[in-house]
């Protein structure tokens, strides 16, 4: 019986780890499938439209079922927040990310996406949502981590270096390429793809900063907010696609890898992953969830070399290592900051009962004011507790008793 309880506890504690590892495999699959679809000629503008149409169809029913009551009113400021969120996420971020993925490789794109925590920190500082105290170690860690992350991204962008061969790539793909090989990519396209990925990450970081404000309105209706953002983003992406894609044939989609890429990205990456990641963040915090992102890069590197015969360059490996080091430095600083906030919240002064001249007083003020009141009450208690010795006259009855006993 005791063994079953221990097994149940260990299984319960391992659920967040299993969920986040499974999520990284889901993200890795999205990158591989999308890369194949883009290389076969699908427009990334059309892919963004179909992806968020699938995401809206997947999330909206759950929002209607679980969050029907108490919906916030969509005023003009709230609508503008949703509009800008949709513009930053589904339109700018996804289009630039897919374009960068087309010019580079899945592993390179995943490595660049690890810059997100550092860029979010920079955007929060610029918007005055984050304060910097250089004297504190946690702030130093976030600053150093941001600089290291930027250095890794610059190295990956400007330096390719020789190809790094893995032992399994020699046995599975001996000189074979299926059209997805990045070795033939020109340096000009590589730099262009890197810049597009950096812009996509900046847009995603801006989305996180603005989303923090929008969540104050939709605090208890996060599924509804996600559904609205995906729906408005779909409409915006349609407009962008009509402007950028003049061929009607680009909208055609059949039962092929293009449909799989759109459905997989919409349902798994934007639907299931949202729910799983939300549950993990609620239970273990955002730092725990973000710490697994480098695992996706490793999975994509292995899957890409197996499936796509992807070539990985030395500059990408060194840059990815620097980005991961910077990522964990920023996450460590953020973790320390969250711990300090928890400690400060626990140190809120509780009501204190004080006896003063027979009366009970509850002191629930700030610390400095309470200390002043305590001193005053202590002085009052001292005055009331002083014992004054004075000669008291004896009672007549006691005097008569003494006289009677003396006569006897």
Automatic annotation (TrEMBL):
It is found in: Membrane. GO terms for molecular function: transmembrane transporter activity. Belongs to the drug/metabolite transporter (DMT) superfamily. Plant drug/metabolite exporter (P-DME) (TC 2.A.7.4) family. It is a multi-pass membrane protein. It comes from Herrania umbratica. Residues 17-157, 192-331 form the EamA domain. Coiled coil: none annotated. It holds the Pfam family EamA. This is WAT1-related protein. InterPro entries: EamA_dom, EmrE-like, WAT1-related.
């Amino acid at each position: 019986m005791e063994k079953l309880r221990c097994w149940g506890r260990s299984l319960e504690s391992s659920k967040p780890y299993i969920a986040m590892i499974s999520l990284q495999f889901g993200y890795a699959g999205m990158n591989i499938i999308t890369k194949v679809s883009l290389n076969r000629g699908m427009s990334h503008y059309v892919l963004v439209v179909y992806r968020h149409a699938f995401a809206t169809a997947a999330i909206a029913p759950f929002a209607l079922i679980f969050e029907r009551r108490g919906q916030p009113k969509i005023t003009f400021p709230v609508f503008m927040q949703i509009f800008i969120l949709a513009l930053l996420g589904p339109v700018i971020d996804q289009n630039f990310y897919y374009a960068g993925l087309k010019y580079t490789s899945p592993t390179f794109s995943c490595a660049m996406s690890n810059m997100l925590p550092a860029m979010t920190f920079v955007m929060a500082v610029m918007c005055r949502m984050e304060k910097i105290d250089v004297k504190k170690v946690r702030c130093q860690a976030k600053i150093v981590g941001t600089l290291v992350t930027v250095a890794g991204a610059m190295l990956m962008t400007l330096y390719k270096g020789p190809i790094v061969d893995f032992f399994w790539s020699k046995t599975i793909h001996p000189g074979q390429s299926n059209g997805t090989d990045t070795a033939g990519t020109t340096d000009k396209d590589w730099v262009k793809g890197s810049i597009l990925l950096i812009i996509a990450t900046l847009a995603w970081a801006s989305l996180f900063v603005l989303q923090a404000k929008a969540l104050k309105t939709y605090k208890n209706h996060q599924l509804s907010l996600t559904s609205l953002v995906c729906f408005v983003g779909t409409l915006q992406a349609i407009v962008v696609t009509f402007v950028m894609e003049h061929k009607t044939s680009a909208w055609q989609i059949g039962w092929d890898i293009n449909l799989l890429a759109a459905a997989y990205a919409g349902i798994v990456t934007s639907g299931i992953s949202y729910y799983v990641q939300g549950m993990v963040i609620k239970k273990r915090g955002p730092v725990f969830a973000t710490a697994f992102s480098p695992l996706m890069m490793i999975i994509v590197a292995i899957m890409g070399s197996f499936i796509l015969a992807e070539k990985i360059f030395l500059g990408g490996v060194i840059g990815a290592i620097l980005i991961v080091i910077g990522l964990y430095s920023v996450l460590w600083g953020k973790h320390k900051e969250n711990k300090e906030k928890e400690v400060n919240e626990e140190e809120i002064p509780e009501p204190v009962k004080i006896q003063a001249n027979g009366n009970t007083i509850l002191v629930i003020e700030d610390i400095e004011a309470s200390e002043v009141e305590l001193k005053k009450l202590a002085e009052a208690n001292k005055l009331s507790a002083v014992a004054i010795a004075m000669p008291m006259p004896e009672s007549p009855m006691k005097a008569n008793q003494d006289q009677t006993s003396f006569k006897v």
